[in-house]
Amino acid sequence: MAVVDVKSEITGKVWKLDTTPGDALGEDDTILTLESMKMEIPVLSPSAGKLKEILVAEGDSVKEGQVVARLEK
Q1: Are 43 and 30 in contact (CB under 8 A)?
Q2: What pTM value is reported for the model?
C-alpha cells in the first residue's frame, strides 16, 4: 500500500479534526479544518483511501507545507 502525505496549504491553527485514523475517505473529503484570519479552511484528502494517522491535534499551529496526516491508498 502506498502512503500519501497530506500537507497544509496555509499557515494557521487546527480548529477541528473531522476524521479519525481508520476512517475510509473519498477524494476531496475533509480530514481536518484549519482556522486562519477568522476563516475556516478544510484540509482535503488528495485521493480515496484509509486515514492512517493524523499528526496534529486541535489547537496546534501548522505551517504551510507541513504534513498534517497520512493516507493509505
Answers
A1: yes
A2: 0.93
Domains and CATH numbers, the chain: 3-72 (2.40.50.100)
Residue type, 67: V
pLDDT digits (tens, 9 = 90+) for 31-46: 999 999 999 999 999 9
Residues in Cβ contact with 51 at an 8 Å cutoff, skipping those fewer than 6 apart: 19, 20, 21, 22, 23, 24, 25, 31, 45, 69, 70, 71, 72
Q: Which among 64, 72, 11 has a CA at the least distance from the CA of 45? A: 72
CB atoms within 10 A of CB 5: 12
